[in-house]
Amino acid sequence: MIGRLNHVAIAVPDLEAACAQYRGALGANVGEPQDEPDHGVTVVFIELPNTKIEFLYPLGDNSPIAGFLEKNPAGGIHHICYEVEDIEVARDKLLAEGARVLGDIKIGAHNKPVLFLHPKDFNGCLVELEQV
Ligand SMILES: CC[C@H](C(=O)O)C(=O)SCCNC(=O)CCNC(=O)[C@H](O)C(C)(C)COP(=O)(O)OP(=O)(O)OC[C@H]1O[C@@H](n2cnc3c(N)ncnc32)[C@H](O)[C@@H]1OP(=O)(O)O
Ligand SMILES: [Co+2]
C-alpha cells in the first residue's frame, strides 16, 4: 500500500535560521514559506534528488506542532510522509486494523489529500499519508 517517501518533516523553532542554514551550510534548494492555516503551520519544502524535507513552523494559536516544540525546543523530526494511490482505501484499511486516524482527510501542502496516523500506533513515529 505505501509507496515512495514523499517527505520527512522537521519542526523548527526558527524558520528563517533553518532555511538560511540549509541554503548556506548544506547548499540546499530551499523553497519559499507557504502558510497552511488549515493545518496550523507554515511550511518550507527543500527539494532533494530522491525526496523532500518539509520544515514546519507554528502558525496561529492552536498549531498541532506547538506541543512538539515545547517538548523539543531545539526542534526535531516531526513526521514522515508516505505516498499512497488511494487515501480513502488506505484510511479504511487502517481503521479496520485498529489504527488511529487523526482527524479527517484534508488537502495538504501539495494540494493533495493527506491524513495522519497516531505516533503511538507506529513505533513512536507520526505518519502522514499523501495521495498522489
Ligand atoms: C500543510 C500540511 C503538511 C503536509 O505535509 O501537507 C503537514 O505535514 S501539516 C503537519 C502538522 N499537522 C499535524 O501534525 C497533524 C497531526 N498531528 C496531531 O494531530 C498532533 O500533533 C498529535 C496528536 C500527533 C500530537 O498532539 P500533541 O502535540 O497535542 O501531543 P499529545 O500529548 O497528544 O501526544 C501524545 C503522545 O504522542 C507524542 N507525540 C506528539 N507528537 C509526536 C510526533 N510528531 N512524533 C512522535 N510522537 C509524538 C507525545 O510525546 C505524546 O507521547 P507521550 O509518551 O504520551 O508523552
Ligand atoms: Co507533512
From TrEMBL:
<dbReference type="InterPro" id="IPR017515">
    <property type="entry name" value="MeMalonyl-CoA_epimerase"/>
</dbReference>
<dbReference type="InterPro" id="IPR051785">
    <property type="entry name" value="MMCE/EMCE_epimerase"/>
</dbReference>
<dbReference type="InterPro" id="IPR037523">
    <property type="entry name" value="VOC_core"/>
</dbReference>
<keyword id="KW-0223">Dioxygenase</keyword>
<keyword id="KW-0560">Oxidoreductase</keyword>
<comment type="similarity">
    <text>Belongs to the methylmalonyl-CoA epimerase family.</text>
</comment>
<dbReference type="GO" id="GO:0051213">
    <property type="term" value="F:dioxygenase activity"/>
</dbReference>
<dbReference type="GO" id="GO:0046491">
    <property type="term" value="P:L-methylmalonyl-CoA metabolic process"/>
</dbReference>
<dbReference type="GO" id="GO:0046872">
    <property type="term" value="F:metal ion binding"/>
</dbReference>
<keyword id="KW-0479">Metal-binding</keyword>
<protein>
    <recommendedName>
        <fullName>methylmalonyl-CoA epimerase</fullName>
        <ecNumber>5.1.99.1</ecNumber>
    </recommendedName>
</protein>
<dbReference type="GO" id="GO:0004493">
    <property type="term" value="F:methylmalonyl-CoA epimerase activity"/>
</dbReference>
<dbReference type="InterPro" id="IPR029068">
    <property type="entry name" value="Glyas_Bleomycin-R_OHBP_Dase"/>
</dbReference>
<feature type="domain" description="VOC">
    <location>
        <begin position="4"/>
        <end position="132"/>
    </location>
</feature>
<keyword id="KW-0170">Cobalt</keyword>
<keyword id="KW-0413">Isomerase</keyword>
<dbReference type="Pfam" id="PF13669">
    <property type="entry name" value="Glyoxalase_4"/>
</dbReference>
